[in-house]
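WARN retry 2 of 3 for item q-0093 after timeout on previous attempt; input resubmitted unchanged.
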Amino acid sequence: MRTVKKSEHNAYQIHYHFVCPVKYRKALFGFFDREHTLRSVCVEIGERYEYEFEQVGIDTNHVHFLISTAPKFAPSVIIQTTKSILARELFKKHPDLRKELWGGQFWTDGFFVATVGEGGNKDVIREYVRKQGLPIDQLKLFDF
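OK item q-0093 returned
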């Protein structure tokens, strides 16, 4: 059994899996400096808002977040806060992004969210998020 986290008035084990696509599905990641900025800003967001970014998986045109936080935060608020701060900081530290995103928005309006259970289910998602952007190991097919 995993550790139960505690806040002032709650004990909880909540894990959210978010997927946020880049606007127009543009491949803006895959560059060390942009990915480094995203990860460092996630650390700052986590400290300020008491979100625990358990895993961040970056693919070229979308980002997976595995976030744990107190139940006082609705998932829509968690991702709205995260996306807005990340967009602002990415545009500030990488002004060249504005040329690639002519509308001035970094993320699409929508996102995917799912709660992740403890145990095997969470571990499977954690591994999936960790492998984002890495080459995919294909199954080997054998002729008989």
